[in-house]
Amino acid sequence: MFKPSKALEEQIAKIPSSPGCYIYRNSSGIVLYVGTAINLLKRVKSYFQRFDDLELRKKQMVKQINSMEYIVADNATEAFVLETNLIRKYKPKYNVDKKDDKNYSWVMIDEKSDFPRITIVRDRKNKKAFYQGPYAKQFPIRNTLESLRKLFPYRSCARVIEYRDKKVHSSDTEPCLYWHLGLCDAPCTGKVSGKEYKKNIWRIKSFFSENRKDMVGALKEEMFELSGRGDFEKAAKIRDKIADLTYLKTRVDIEESTDEFKFRKAKINLHNRALEDFLDTIKELNLKNRDGFKIECYDISNIQGAYSVGSMVVFVNGQPDKSKYRKFRIKNTSTPDDFLMHNEVQVRRFKKYLSKSEDDSFGVLPDLIIIDGGKGQLTSALRAQKETGVTVPVIGLAKRNEEIFFVKEQNGKTNEFINKRFIRNSQAKYLVQRIRDESHRFAITYHKKLREIESKLSVLDDIPGIGRIIKFKLIKAFGNVDNIMKATDSELQQIVKNKATVKKIKDML
């Protein structure tokens, strides 16, 4: 095991358990290595915890690490694309591949021609063409172009087609198979005007550039319609197409970046897009994305009802705001009743709001609440809202099948539960998982801290004259039992006024 410096340890402690990229630098700020991971925290820690098992080259690298930074991605594919771009930008000494363009592909639109072609290329030799990319993998791009082509037919052939003297001139006037399949409007035969043909090209280019949402929405509606009719096989194919479309927009183009601000900007854009997709998943709640959109997520941690705690984590614009995290010590139950505990935490949170708490975490209601749990936990949270008279949109997230549960009220009456599953590999899914995992981590951390304090206090239980209040005061003042043992009589007497009790403490410890 190799122990990092204190400053580096502090940087590592802030890393989330999310997919993304990490960047190691030496004392001069030079990038040593760029890596990618499904779990950033676990991967970075492994370099130091398993130092003895590393190959010699990586041992040499680890010894030079002076600082590090990370960029959170929405999924593994996005992290891979980002890693490729970072390696190409920095060309780190300890990365042995991905330093050139061999891994890249671009979508090329030869828009200067009368009837532009759309193809996938490995280079950008045609300076007059429009390029979208780079992409690390071709397969999702081809699937996406196939979907686009069904909506907006275009040609991919090498036929020479020109518009001269108000006529179409082509090297071959017989329509090919793609026309019969409905994938090309056969401009070679004059079946479509240049103006109409270029409309399709413009639509595809617009999709790549900015207007993706409408197309994805139409595909989602088709998927839900097929699923509702029981045609799950076709619905699954549409689902996979949506996943490919999502991949296509995960390009993180930072090759022209000259400073770290571009990295942060890319990260913010990714989170905003993920939040937009998430709100679209729960569109029945009619939530509108806005700057400062606030989500609170709650989790409960206990062992058979003991040391029960609740956590509240806050995400603003899809990103954690740790200054607003809050924790709750469960007061009203000593049994392992998750439902009652969730109800207690929600009631206490809303009462703080109603009391006009100056704590801005409690003084402002969130746009959405996420409860870690299924229908039972969600019902407990809804009951808390009825008890306090506070209304906030709330959903439950069941871990077993990664399902979302929520209800929609109409005319003051609660309808049946609505449950939904996320699209495979969707950005919305990864966003909600990150929020849920963060609330779980925060709850577990507080739970462990309470157990440690209680275990320290238990050593003092056998000392006559020491009650619970004095025990907490001693731990608060000295930190642990070892420090109490080392304390002088005068120091102990500041907490324990009785000299005889002070003597008993010294004797017993």
How would you describe this structure to a colleague?
It contains 18 helices and 18 strands. The protein has 509 residues and is α+β, with helices and mostly antiparallel strands. The chain folds into 4 domains: 85 residues, GIY-YIG endonuclease; 144 residues, no CATH class; 145 residues, UvrC, RNAse H endonuclease domain (Nucleotidyltransferase, domain 5, 2-Layer Sandwich), CATH 3.30.420; 50 residues, Orthogonal Bundle (DNA polymerase, domain 1). Helix 11 runs parallel beside helix 13.
Question: What's this entry about, in short?
Answer:
This protein is α+β, with helices and mostly antiparallel strands. Helices cover 45% and strands 18% of the residues.
The largest sheet is: 8 strands, mixed
Q: From the 3D coordinates, which CATH architecture of the largest domain would you assign?
A: 2-Layer Sandwich
Integer average pLDDT = 79
Q: Could you name the CATH class of the largest domain?
A: Alpha Beta
Query: In percent, how much strand structure appears in the residues?
Result: 15-25%
CATH topology term of the largest domain: Nucleotidyltransferase, domain 5
